[in-house]
Amino acid sequence: MGFRGLLRTLLLSLPMLALSAYLLTRGVIPPDWPHRAALLLVFFFFNAAFIAMIHTGKTDRWRAPLFIAIAGLFAVSFMGNMLELNSRQGEFVDFIFRDSVPMCPVVIPMMLIPAAVGKTIIWPGAVAGTYAAAGLMFVIWLAASLGLGKAWCGWGCFFGGLDDAFSRLLPRALLGTPGWLRALPYAVLIVFALLTAASMMPAYCGLLCPVKAATELPPGDFVSDKLMLWVHLGMFGAFTAALPILTKRRVQCAFICPLGALQNGMDRLAPFKMRVDAARCTACGACAKNCPVLAIKPGTATPGSACVKCGRCADNCPAGAISFSVKGAVHSPGSGRLLFLYPAFLFMTGFGGGICVDAVARLITFGLTGRLF
Ligand code: SF4
Ligand code: SF4
């Protein structure tokens, strides 16, 4: 691909360069230089990955670094916010079930350092949120789900990069993943919806979720607090780290997360899907083997509604038989992919970019002052 190819890539990327600059700044340049430097770094990192996606034709190869970085930097940002809030409040919450706390084991990576350094597990109650915050999150989720469907789990969720990262560590799977696991998230969703209704408590968040977003639990006694801490640590270790490493699948996202089950339904409303050209497919099975969420049944080469549109199957199909497409439209692999990549990248940048800027600014500050805020 020569000069014409580069020019084409640049022209196709220009709209994203402009829009991502706006999404990252919201029209305001930060006054302090750590945030300015962070903004520049995040802008270049995100757009370099997007340009590489366009230029190479590989989607997952360049999506994954962004998705994983967002998950890692979310941990840094979250931890910095917790420390800052607690410092402002003048006290540290010393255990996880205290007042109205956001109960989320996804913050396990964030609490390890404060726990090791300060012998304190940080869960400030004031971050539990308000109706307005919850309402905004709902609107964002609904809009993204209607536009991108299950791609939320491959491009938006700032927890998903955790098991995505772990699932890539080994060159081949050491454990198989039986097909019945596809039904597990529905079972989790039904059981915990019933339990929640019966108890009027966020049962999944309190009892099972390895990567909870935010919830509240009433204070428990010391023994149950400690027990639940170890349950959540165990869930995180098993479903977000160990099993993804061994199976090379995103176990937490694909087989546990009840939101994932809901997204499977939302995917039917969204306009995008992965399309397999039956005339080209040689039935080699590479797509099913590489799919991190078991969205392709072996022997069928047909992605189902569990597909998170990561593009890994298309990247790895030796026959070039898989492409992004728009439902109901005349199929063109190049434009179908572009029509998907634009909104997916903008959603990723708008939803996760600010977190990355905050985290990188905190890391710069930490490097200079030894403090995350
Ligand atoms: S990887 Fe490509 S050629 Fe192989 S089964 Fe899947 S669609 Fe067919
Ligand atoms: S079917 Fe392809 S695009 Fe969909 S989740 Fe699996 S690997 Fe990713």
Number of strands: 2
Overall residue-averaged pLDDT value: 80
* Class derived from helix and strand content: mainly alpha
Helix content: 55-70%
Could you characterize the architecture of this molecule?
The protein is mainly alpha-helical and 373 residues long. The chain is 61% helix and 3% strand. The chain has helices at 3-25, 33-56, 60-89, 108-118, 131-148, 152-156, 160-166, 184-199, 203-207, 222-247, 251-256, 258-267, 286-290, 312-316, 333-369, and strands at residues 272-276, 322-326. Strands 1-2 form a two-stranded antiparallel sheet. The protein starts with a helix and ends with a helix. The chain binds iron/sulfur cluster (2 copies). Residues 274, 290-291, 293, 295-296, 303, 307-313 line the site of one iron/sulfur cluster. One iron/sulfur cluster binds next to helix 14.
